[in-house]
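Minutes, project huddle
Topic: does the predicted pose make sense with LLP bound?
PN asked that the exact inputs be recorded in the minutes so nobody has to dig through chat later. Recorded below.
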Amino acid sequence: MFNNNTIQRFNDTETPFYYYDMGVLRNTLDACRDASSKYGFHVHYAMKANFNPKVVDMIQSFGFGADCVSGNEVKSAMEHGFDKGKVVFAGVGKSDKEINLALDADIFCFNVESVQELEIINDLAKAKNKVAGIAIRINPNVDAHTHHYITTGLDENKFGINTWQLNDVAETLRKCANLKFLGIHFHIGSQITDMEVYRSLCIRINEMQDWFENHGFAIKILNTGGGLGVDYYNPDTNTIPDFESYFKVFSKFLNVKPGQEVHFELGRALVAQSASLISRVLYVKNGQKKNFLILDAGMTELMRPMLYQAYHTIENLSREREAKSEGADAPDTPHTAPQIKYDVVGPICESTDCFRKDVDLPQSYRGDLIAIRTAGAYGEVMASNYNLRDHVQSVYSETAD
Ligand code: LLP
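Predicted holo structure (tokens), as shared on screen:
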């Protein structure tokens, strides 16, 4: 990801910025397409993970669909040229304005999260003399074994329709003439690396499928959601997520009937490893108890560590590169410079503005370039201008096309 030319380029660029390695993105998309097409599975990109225009353009060029969670995401998906037959609209609180926008765009499917929402979509579709494609998002009560802030499929979560409400769903579907029932939708959480969890999900999906069919509803679409995790600890050696194992679980345990389509909504796994947040050391504060590296990027550029205690690999590109080139030509030779523990913090006026405590790094100096890795998912999209900061910029690798 970082050769000498890249680092030279960083030296000449104003920080902080997101650096997108379009080669990594392309390889990741290739791997996902290969692994999913083996089983005829359909992948929709969860646009919420990153709506940087160049990233979205590349994803669209691979033929993936778009999973949107707001009217603006639906609009953006259409503007980026996604096939409307591959655009789905999820979200627990779709406004009337957003539903109307999606109806006007003739998207493929609404993933519906409550009985009341079914009635509203039906009314709005009727007013336009249209029929809306519908999948019912079911809360399967499957524990994703991930951080509780990014778990979505448990009874106590706000998402989806609980199984005890399914009779109401069936009754409502029967009387809503402007809805076309397409299938069932699930999403149990994010950053899931334990494939057992997906096996449990398959079993629940099979049960739910039986329930609908026993109540007279044919299922065309089984939408399993997203959530495949990435390796935040080894971005250089484990760059491509394990798409093979992921899709294999579904091919093995999901009861797919002839004519049915299996849909996935991957966000993080497609984009996380393709970007790093590049920042500079503004000040080094050596205290009696702590040493601080104060960066020119903070929670306004990358919120994940502060919000979910998320781990991101942190590197000092200026010093590690020096140590590496002293040692050997091989770019991955581990550096041997003495390590110092730093709390790596941002400039924002909040104590929580800390990327990580006690990070082992080579002795660092003002002006050093720091890379915070695996920042392509839920990074730039969650940036803010708190403290009236400038919006973070983006830089792209030259292998972009
Ligand atoms: N489908 C639905 C209905 C979702 O809610 C999500 C993510 C996805 C698909 C895509 O999940 P993925 O494949 O990216 O795991 N900001 C948090 C993650 C929030 C995920 C929200 N929903 C983070 O930075 O970890």
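Observations noted during the meeting:
- DSSP finds twelve helices and 17 strands in the chain.
- The pocket of LLP is lined by residues 46, 49, 67, 90, 150, 187, 190-191, 225-228, 265-269, 304, 308, 377-378 (CB under 6 Å).
No decisions taken; revisit at the next huddle.
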